[in-house]
Amino acid sequence: MIEVMTSPTPSFVAKPTLIGKRVLLRPVTVADAPGLVELLNDPDVRRLTGTHGQVRPGVLERAEALYSAQAAEDDELYLAVVEPATGEYLGEVVLEDLDADNRSCSFRIALVGPRAFGRGYGTEATRLILAHAFEAVGIHRVGLEVFDFNPRARHVYERVGFVHEGTKRQALHWQGAWVDAHVLAVLADDWSRHGGFPASR
C-alpha cells in the first residue's frame, strides 16, 4: 500500500519539477507560449480535443498571458512536458477544476504532433502528474473525458488506472457526425492498486 500524504486543504500552489526516464515535467513559462500556439494550431490536437473554430489573431499574446499567470494559481497546475536532454517543449499536462472540499480535480494532456506520439511520453507524463496529485497533494479523485475517436488516449488512461464511469452520448458534433465522450476517473485506491510509481511499470 502506498502511503499517501495529505494536506489539510489540497492546493496546486506548489509548482513541482517531476523527473521521469523519458520526459521531464516542469512549470510552464512565457518562453513555452510558442509551443502552446503550435499545439493549438495542430489539426490532430484540435480534433482529439474537440476544439471548433479557427485560432484567432493574438493567440500568442493570450498564450503568454496564460502561462505567465500560472505561477500564482493555487487551483490549477500547468506543467510543460519536455525532452530531458534537449529541453524541447513536447506539450502540457494540466490539473484543473480543483474541488478542495472533495479532493478532486480534472486532468488533461496535449502533446505536439507526430514527434511526441508513440514514444511513451504521454504515458510517463500522465503517471508523473498522477503521482504528484495523489502522493504529494492528497487528491482523492482525478477525472477526465475522452472522445470515442481517440482510443489510443483511452488505452493510456486505462493502463495507468483510470476506470470508465459512463458515456455522454453524442456530446460532440464533429464534421457532420456525432461523437460520444467517455467519462473516466482514477481514485487514490485505484492508483495504489496499480502500483503507483515507478513510471516504468
Automatic annotation (TrEMBL):
This is GNAT family N-acetyltransferase. The keyword Transferase applies. PROSITE patterns: GNAT. GO terms for molecular function: acyltransferase activity, transferring groups other than amino-acyl groups. It comes from the Bacteria. Residues 23-185 form the N-acetyltransferase domain. Keywords: Transferase. The keyword Transferase applies.
